[in-house]
Specification:
This protein is α+β, with helices and mostly antiparallel strands. The protein is 45% helix and 21% strand. It contains five helices and five strands, in the order H-H-H-H-E-H-E-E-E-E. Strands 1, 2, 3, 4 and 5 form a five-stranded antiparallel β-sheet that branches. The longest helix has 27 residues. The chain is elongated, with a radius of gyration of 29 Å.
Amino acid sequence: MSERGQLVLVAATLVAVALAPIVLAYLQLGYHDDVRATADYDDPTAETVRVVERATATASSDVPGDYPWPGRNAAVMAVRGDLRPTLDRLREARVSEGTVTSITYNASAATAWRDANCPDGPNRQFGPCVADRGVVVQERTGRTHVLGIAFDVTTTTDRSETAVTVVVRPVGRQTPV
């Protein structure tokens, strides 16, 4: 091989060695043009549901002591009334940032949850379950107990719309039997 051929071979090797770190850095970045940057995309739906869960636990904590089973309608109204300020605050929280949150009670989801989770028949330990305006209550020792509340949560931003239906169970509630 001539001296010129050896020089070209050495130059090509040096260029390849110099480009190797650049190629490795590019591969480590994992660039893909349809991946959303998490810093730019913030869907507050999960946080909204967490706040609703905490508020539900607080709103339903005093119900058994305050409402006998025949007063279950008043218990449902009281729980919904206690939740109203929190739900209103969540609806308005991010409007200035261009995020609209809708939170509504879902009566059909509450009924479906009751049907799936509240046993019927003579072998149950507690009384009947009733789904009333999105709130599932059960009679236990003559008192009204809140078992769950069904909500539809829809979050609309300039980038997307997220809609979920959740049945929030107050913390520490037993499974209905």
